[in-house]
């Protein structure tokens, strides 16, 4: 049985004081349940969050890591550094890093391997642009991402990956894929994973939807059979909004 998983992606928002204030308010209302919950914050907030979230059951997530564990890579953060801070999850291949920073599938594959090498669970983001969807290429694009991103990742590791489907045209735009559109692609992702591995592996993997998720649409999204959770952007910046989403 797949466990629901809600992860908040704060992107480049909040300073340390704001992060601590968020957690204080969030934990006043948070109750442990069958929903896995993580907050993926900027690097500078991670230590403060690790201390503030200690014992709460809420997991700590990073938004990126470098594919090497150490060396002359100015400005980068490695897996061992994140693990030392108690990071549980790391977002890898987010569309903003693919499009704005030019990350390709080969690099994303190396980052996935670095995460596993350091005991960090990846949240792998895949998704198509509006142009690719309008051209009818969404399935080809997403399956290609999965094939390249998961190259030489064995099934025993793949089953621990959370795949987040985030259509680029629905991120930060207020435009959301309909629940049926999200389910259609998430079901396709599961079938593509079954081809890459086997049906047992695919059936156990967590698949999230990400793209303008908010309290008003989370219920419909989570009703879909192949959607196991959500990668939440803007709505995850408000503690009470995130609580509503977790309590879908």
Q: What does it look like?
A:
With 248 residues, this protein is α/β, with parallel strands linked by helices. It has helices at residues 16-29, 46-53, 79-84, 95-100, 105-117, 130-134, 138-149, 155-158, 179-196, 199-204, 215-222, 239-246, and strands at residues 5-9, 36-40, 59-62, 89-92, 121-126, 162-165, 206-209, 229-232. The longest helix has 18 residues, at 179-196. It starts with a strand and ends with a helix. 44% of the residues lie in helices and 15% in strands. It has one domain (5-246): Alpha-Beta Barrel (TIM Barrel), CATH 3.20.20.70. The chain is built from twelve helices and eight strands.
Outline the fold blueprint:
Layout: E1 5-9, H1 16-29, E2 36-40, H2 46-53, E3 59-62, H3 79-84, E4 89-92, H4 95-100, H5 105-117, E5 121-126, H6 130-134, H7 138-149, H8 155-158, E6 162-165, H9 179-196, H10 199-204, E7 206-209, H11 215-222, E8 229-232, H12 239-246
Parallel strand pairs: 1-2, 1-8, 2-3, 3-4, 4-5, 5-6, 6-7, 7-8
Could you write a compact summary of the structure shown?
The protein has 248 residues and is of the alpha/beta class.
Essential attributes:
alpha/beta; about 15% strand; TIM Barrel; about 250 residues; 12 helices; 8 strands; eight-stranded parallel barrel
């Amino acid at each position: 049985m797949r466990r629901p998983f809600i992860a908040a992606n704060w992107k480049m928002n909040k300073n340390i004081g704001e992060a601590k204030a968020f957690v204080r308010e969030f934990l006043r209302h948070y109750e442990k349940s069958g929903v896995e919950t993580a907050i993926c914050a900027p690097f500078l907030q991670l230590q403060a969050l690790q201390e503030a979230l200690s014992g709460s059951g809420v997991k700590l997530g990073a938004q990126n890591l470098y594919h090497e564990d150490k060396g002359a890579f100015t400005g980068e953060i490695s897996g061992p550094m994140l693990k030392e801070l108690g990071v549980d999850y790391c977002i890898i291949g987010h569309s903003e890093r693919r499009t704005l920073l030019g990350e390709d599938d080969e690099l994303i594959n190396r980052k996935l391997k670095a995460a596993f090498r350091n005991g960090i669970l990846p949240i792998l983001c895949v998704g198509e642009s509006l142009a690719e969807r309008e051209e009818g290429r969404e399935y080809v694009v997403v399956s290609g991402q999965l094939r390249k991103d998961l190259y030489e990742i064995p099934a025993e590791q793949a089953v621990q990956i959370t795949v987040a489907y985030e259509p680029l045209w629905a991120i930060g735009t207020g435009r959301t894929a309909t629940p049926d559109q999200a389910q259609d692609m998430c079901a396709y992702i599961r079938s593509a994973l079954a081809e890459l591995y086997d049906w047992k592996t695919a059936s156990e993997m967590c698949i999230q939807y990400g793209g303008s998720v908010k309290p008003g649409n989370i219920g419909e999204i989570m009703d879909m059979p192949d959607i196991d959770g959500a990668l939440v952007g803007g709505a995850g910046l408000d503690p009470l909004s995130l609580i509503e989403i977790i309590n879908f």
